[in-house]
Write the structure tokens for this entry.
Amino acid sequence: MLESSLEGKNIGTEPFGLTETAATKISKLLIDERDPQNTFMRVAVEGGGCSGFQYTFKFDTQKNDDDLVFEKNGIEVVVDEISLELVHGGQLDYVEELIGSYFQVTNPNASSSCGCGTSFSI
């Protein structure tokens, strides 16, 4: 578990980040949102998937007391404290390949992950 400094939102350097590519893609997707000025990308971890945990990505407009905000080029990504414990030191990226494009979390805490990269175990 992370230190109690999470309560003050001061959790050290780079607890979670996002790449230029992810920030650019989120910016483009926000154009279609109803309230782009107050909308952000929420990254969370839930139980499930073929490896035990899975990432979820969604646009949201409501921040909770336990949310931490990470920003790049004016684009906000929000992660709740519990999810941050599982992705601490990770980074959100956007990958474009011939077979498709998707958001992906590079997670240094994952001991293994499934082939598609959306679920992992610790």
About this structure: The helical segments are 20-30, 81-87. The chain has one domain: 14-121. DSSP finds two helices and nine strands in the chain.
